[in-house]
Amino acid sequence: MPIHLIWGDDAAARDHAIETLIGDVVDQAWSSINLSRLDGADAGQASQALTEARTPPFGSGGRLVLLQRSPFCNACPSELANRFEDVLDLIPETSHLVLCNPNKPDGRLRTTKALQKLVKLKQASEKSFLLPAIWDGAGQQELVERTARDLGLQLEPEATTALVEAIGNDSTRLTAELQKLALHADIRQESATANQSPTLIKAENVAALIEGMATNALQVGDSLLAGHAGEAIARLDALLDAGEPALRIVATLTGQIRGWLWVSLLEQQGERDVNVIAKAAGIGNPKRIYVMRKQLQGRPPQRFLTLLSRLLEVEAALKRGAIPTDAFRDGLLSTP
Predict the structure, then answer these.
(1) Which residues, in sequence order, are CB contacts of 281 under 8 Å at separation 6+?
(2) CA pair distance 98, 3, nearest whole angstrom
(3) Which of 107, 142, 246, 256 could connect to 324 by a Cys-Cys bridge, CB 3.0–4.6 Å?
């Protein structure tokens, strides 16, 4: 299959799949000639990728042309789309064109339709790597387990739970922490025995190596809901220290609190159908409503309006260039 479509917001999994493909296709002795890494945000490089993909490899192994931020399935200009369609049947079997984009392909584009047709004919491949929602505990557990398998690691159930609580859906940090845990476990294993068994990661290894407070943005929201502002600020500091973008935290908190507001208002109006409430609140899993009802019991809608107003102040301060820690403190600790 000379064409590979790879998309999704799980950057770590995307990169792992790409590097695995490169290792399978390209002979390292000829990689300086047969491996190209281009950026599709530049129309010239996108066009260059099409030209290079038509060129057979030199020496042994195959040729691989990687186009990050590929435009061909997302807002593709008509001239570039014409060139793309002309090239589809001209790529040699020993050359591979890898189209990578974090966004889902736009099914309305003719270039996307052309690629999907090739996928159905098994003349192209498509792989998607999507991060679970920050509230999706089962999805985050699956992410941890899949990443561990990709790295050749075995996790105790308690270790999986600890990683979910500590990292959430940050796949890049998850990969880095698992690699450190693997190295730590290997060193301990070598010092204890010469037996080469699969690397096992235990919960105590996770607790010993992952520093800082195990937190995510939803836990910050839970602290705000309970009125524990100091705890919320401490969790925010942990997130910011771990490299979480401040505006992403604001977006997650805003979505979480807006959902609470909708549930609270509809409950106040006497609505009991969880499907109706979930649809109005933009919540994909109606079963979450049962949990949210218990969380929100006794808390008036005005509480959530106040929190949303404070988050708006935080967002405005961040966009004016305020230091994230100061923006959150000034916004969330302000007098109602």
Answers:
(1) 258, 259, 262, 263, 266, 289
(2) 6
(3) 246
* pLDDT, position 193: 47
With a CB cutoff of 8 Å and minimum separation 6, the contacts of 198 are 152, 153, 154
Q: Which two tokens stand for residue 85?
A: 């369609």
Please give the structure tokens belonging to residue 135.
């509230």
For residues 54 and 336, the model is more confident at 54
- Whether 222 shows a pLDDT value over 50: the answer reads yes
165 against 62, higher pLDDT: 62
Confidence of residue 40 (pLDDT cuts 50, 70, 90): very high
Distance CA 135, CA 252 (A): 10
* Cα distance between residue 99 and residue 126, in whole Å: 9
Give yes or no for a contact between 88 and 59, defined as CB atoms under 8 angstroms apart.
Answer: no
C-alpha–C-alpha distance, residues 111 and 150, integer Å = 32
Give the DSSP letter string of 207-234.
HHHS-S----HHHHHHHHHTT-HHHHHH
